[in-house]
Amino acid sequence: MLELARYEARRRLKGALYLTVGLTLLAGMYIATFPSMAEDMNLDQFLEQMPEVFLELFNIATMNTIEGFLAAELYSIGWVLLLGLYMAYSAATIIAGDIDRERMDILLSLPVSRARVLGEKFLALLVPIVVVNAVLPVVIYAGTVAIGYPIDSVDLAVVHLLAIPYLLACGAIGVVLSVLTSRSSVAQRGALVAIFGLFLFESVTIIADYEQLGSIAPMRYFDATAVLVEGSYDWAGGAILLGATALLVGASMLYFGRRDIA
Amino acid sequence: MSVIDVVGLTKHYGDIRAVEGVDFTVEKGEVFGFLGPNGAGKTTTIRTMLGLLNPTAGRATVLGADSTDEPAMIEAKRSIGYLPANPAFDDGSTGREILDLHASIKGDDRREELLDLFEPPLDREVREYSSGNRQKLGVVQAFMHDPELVIMDEPTSGLDPLMQQRFNEFVRAEREQDVTVFFSSHVLSEVRRVCDRVAILREGELVTTEAIESLLDRSGKFVRARIAGHVESDAFDGDEVHGFERTLIEDRAEELLAATDFESDADVVTEVRFTYTGDINDLVADLASYSFVDLDVEEAPLEEVFMRFYGPEQRGRAPRDEHGVAKPAGGDGGA
To answer: Chain B window 40-59: which residues touch A at a Cβ cutoff of 8 Å?
Structure first.
């Protein structure tokens, strides 16, 4: 078991390292600018001028503390949006890419079930997810200590722990698109549209007082602001995301198990 | 029990009938050729047999496993090798990494022996492979776990002539080891060299299944004769004569006649070429009335047989069906 997962994991390692380097630079940039911003201006006054949709989009509570600032800038853009898009985009090629490039025939000539092929390829997505969320908290903690605004290390660890189910759920959305089409470009575009659309939809439903509708979006269950600013951990949200991931991946397995490879 | 059993296999894509009611069986230790021009439905049949496509109707079993029964097929695949038409692998992996993956799942008892024969550049990434190297890697992965049945779709395409020859010798040697080999091709000369039996597919339907010898028998003789004197263009008319061509040689007639011991006062030599599918004794009797400068009678090239199964490639659909001369008398449709 897990031979395919190991093989796919090795292939994802390089991308995971590039991603980690990129996010380290992004995090470093935000952290480095915080002291001058915090000293020279009151960002919350500036925020009061902003439309509500902006605050909801980026889940902004306060920007005058390092926690609020990072939650609003780094996590809502870097994690919720960028990493969410990346995971869905990567996952979208899991099946469609191999069919599109005619690799699936040889892969399925192996004595393995289609469900196992999909499941093990999906598991390999844990490589970028885990690498990023293991390295970045260390980088961010060290950075905040270095600028003299140290962040709470437990809260920080929890944010990155809760990011894992969120990113898995984004990957699961990509996998669904991956089994629905045989063209990887279509699946990838679909995945980007889905994540970006859900991101906007989740915020808009709050403003429009249709909050329940937004509960279909994975962004609803991952709230870095709540963890960092208020110290409240949404474990139930994480469980819901894991459940949704299992549901979407399971449904994808069933559908992929029956469809024509064409 | 047959190694491959295909019954009434039908596959439609929407309105397109890719494969229609195909029946054949392949027995253990046979090398079975699956012939047809591009677009005849060979690949669709193969991919349905392997469970990659769901049949619209009918069924296919390989090593006793129904193609739609996934658990049974997984068991069967331990003993099946498959080489698709355009074998493709992950671009960013090296040949070795890919073979290692396959080895970890299905075994690699014969990897080294195969690598000695086919030599793909194992330490290079697949993105740098030529199509020939991809094909070699494909052949190695198809045979490395010592399968009982190997299914290959156009296996020699992309291989250079030397490799093709090596491949054909390899397949013949496999047959001695009781391996069953099923492969598709549109190259008849290669089928003739390695196959025991062939099925011919045309526009999704099976035209015939038969032993290669009987195909060759029925394929007839290619006759090329230089006859002293003038021969009328209708001299060889008959149902058994195909593709008759006649050339009158006047300028070199004397020279040609002088090269033989035959005494003739003819001032012209007639060259005739045709394929003869009737009884060979009748042919000899027909020829007996002429005096020859030269006579060749040889097995008709399979390409020509093929043409008679399918009709000339260039014609439109209607005349092609009409001229299809396709249904040969001895065709048993695999029944």
So the answer is: 47, 50-54
Per-residue pLDDT tens digits for B143-170: 999 999 999 999 988 889 899 999 999 9
Q: pLDDT tens for residues B89-126?
A: 999 999 999 999 999 999 999 999 999 999 999 999 99
Distance CA A232, CA A246 (A): 25
Structure tokens at B275: 């394929």
Where do the domains of chain A lie? 3-258
Measured from the Cβ of residue B77, the count of other Cβ atoms closer than 10 Å reads 25
Write the secondary structure of A128-167 as one string of H (helix), E (strand) and C (coil). HHHHHHHHHHHHHHHHHHHCCCCCCHHHHHHHHHHHHHHH
Contact B70 A114 (CB under 8 A): yes
Chosen for mutation from B101, B134, B182 (greatest number of chain A CBs closer than 10 Å) is B101
For A239, residues 6+ apart whose C-beta sits below 8 A from its C-beta are: A165
So what's the ipTM on this one? 0.90
Q: Residue holding tokens 């990659």?
A: B52
Strand partners, B201: B206
**Residue of A99, A106, A108 to mutate for B, most B C-beta atoms under 10 A:** A106
The reply to whether A113 touches chain B by the CB within 8 Å rule is yes
Residues B252, B255, B259, B261, CA torsion sign: positive
Nearest to A113 among B70, B86, B104 (CB): B70
Structure tokens at B163: 């490799």
At A218-242, the pLDDT tens digits run: 999 999 999 999 999 999 999 999 9
Averaged pLDDT for residues A45-74: 83
Identify whether the C-beta of residue A210 lies closer than 8 Å to the C-beta of residue A59: no
Q: Minimal CA–CA distance to B84: which of A98, A66, A142? A: A98
Q: Give chain A's radius of gyration (CA, Å).
A: 19
CA distance A171 to chain B (A): 21
Q: Do A111 and B13 touch (CB under 8 A)?
A: no
